Amino acid sequence: MPSSPAPSSSALIVPLWRHALAMLYDSLLIIPLFMAMQAVWVSIWGPVNTIQEQAVPPAVQWSGWIVILTIFFGAFWRRGGQTLGMQAWRVKLITETGQKPTWRQVVVRLVGAVLSAAALGIGYAWRAVPPSRRYWHDTLSGTHLELMPKRE
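Above: the chain's sequence. Below: its structure in token form.
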């Protein structure tokens, strides 16, 4: 894992509440994408007669969700470092050198975020541990969140 230097100023650290609200906002955009994808899958595989039957194979559902998440976050983070939720809450994802993340960093960050949550949230709570003040997925991907100044 690459070492992550601590931000130079505490003003740059994104408050946890701001990051949580940006994630909530983005989830309100992602859930309809999942629903639309599910409608497409059901139209392909056809409806089922009973609730016990699965209309769409689980592997297809999971694969679709992974593709949607990768494209959603990858397109926004690669374009300008911000999803719509991040724009609303003035949060930006940048690399350690201040650049936009690469596709590799996007994928590593997404996988790292899932692992951070799967470890009972320890990867997210790790942000409270000095000196790095970073999530596990920040450290793994060589990226971090930065608070953007208010527009005038």
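The first strand starts at residue 91 and ends at 95.
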